[in-house]
Amino acid sequence: MTDLIDTHEAARILGFTGNTLRNARVSGFLGGVTAPGFRKLGTAIRYERSALDRWVAQFEEQTTTHEAA
C-alpha cells in the first residue's frame, strides 16, 4: 500500500511551510520546479511519500571529478 501523508508532514519532509505547499497546489510550482503531485480525498489533501522522495532526489548534488592537466 502507498504511504499517504498530510500537508504538515509533507512540508516537514520537503523543508517548506504548509502554506507554501498550499500555494504550490494552486500554482503547480514549488522551489522553481513542478510541484509534487497530491491526492484530494474528500476534503483531505494527501501526498505519496514516494513522490516526495522523487521530488527531493531531483536536487541531489551531482559531483564530477576533474583531473589536473
Q: What's the quick description here?
A:
This protein has 69 residues and is α+β, with helices and mostly antiparallel strands. The chain is 39% helix and 20% strand. A hairpin with a 2-residue loop joins β2 and β3 (33-34).
User: Structural class of the secondary structure composition?
Assistant: alpha+beta
For the secondary structure, the number of strands is 5
Portion of residues in beta strands equals: 15-25%
The oligomeric state of the chains shown is single chain
Description:
With 69 residues, the protein is an alpha+beta fold. Helices cover 39% and strands 20% of the residues. The protein has helices at residues 7-14, 18-27, 49-57, and strands at 4-5, 29-30, 33-34, 39-41, 44-48. Helix 1 crosses helix 2. The chain is globular, with a radius of gyration of 15 Å.
Which terms summarize this structure?
69 residues, alpha+beta, 3-stranded antiparallel beta sheet, 20% strand, two-stranded antiparallel ribbon, 39% helix, single chain, 3 helices
